[in-house]
Design goal:
It contains seven helices and two strands; from the N terminus they run H-E-E-H-H-H-H-H-H. The protein is mostly helical and 186 residues long. The chain has one domain.
Length: 186
């Protein structure tokens, strides 16, 4: 595995730590909430990305197609920020952990050969979702359909590439939106 791929895998692993956000005090400093701090960091990431693109900077871990667009790293951070700001903890945990583990796993499986191998995301992400929901005391009759929806959305986000928006964003945000929408209906 080359250094760039190793760095991408490391960044994905860090995504799984996104739920730590919920344990940060709501008020960091007088007049500075954790949400405001996260938005400031996000703006810093986006300013850096803008400069990187304008100056044609090459950074270890970027794929060639990312040189002229928002990087997967930035998309991942935007996904983490979106999920932790707008979704409750019990939804954020499986969404972020699934993205942290499944996207790199799919990449490694795809590198081994047959294109259907990334389908491992579906059963493994289902296991992550169902265990998470049961740990967070979501009743089993509710946890099951939520886990199905979350894992299917995660799998679809990785399986079918949507060029304008990176799967590093979609794999965390789409399952969160789908799970919350279904939870509101149940």
């Amino acid at each position: 595995m080359d250094k760039g791929t190793l760095l991408r895998r490391f960044v994905h692993a860090l995504t799984g730590f996104g739920p730590i956000y919920y344990f940060i005090p709501k008020q960091l400093l007088p007049g500075l909430s954790r949400e405001m701090a996260l938005v400031i960091v996000l703006l810093g990431v986006l300013v850096f990305e803008s400069l990187r693109i304008q100056l044609s900077l090459r950074i270890l871990g970027l794929r060639a197609y990312e040189y002229s667009r928002l990087s997967g790293f930035a998309w991942a951070f935007l996904g983490i920020a979106t999920v932790v700001i707008f979704f409750p903890f019990y939804i954020a945990v499986p969404c972020l952990v699934t993205m942290a583990l499944m996207d790199p796993l799919a990449g490694e499986m795809r590198a081994l050969g047959p294109s259907r191998l990334p389908d491992i995301i579906l059963p493994v992400s289902f296991a992550i979702f169902i265990v998470s929901f049961l740990i967070f005391a979501v009743p089993p009759a509710t946890a099951l359909p939520l886990a199905v929806v979350g894992s299917v959305m995660s799998w679809l986000s990785e399986r079918f590439k949507f060029k304008p928006i990176d799967d590093d964003y979609l794999m965390s945000v789409l399952p969160a939106v789908a799970v919350l929408a279904l939870r509101m209906l149940l």
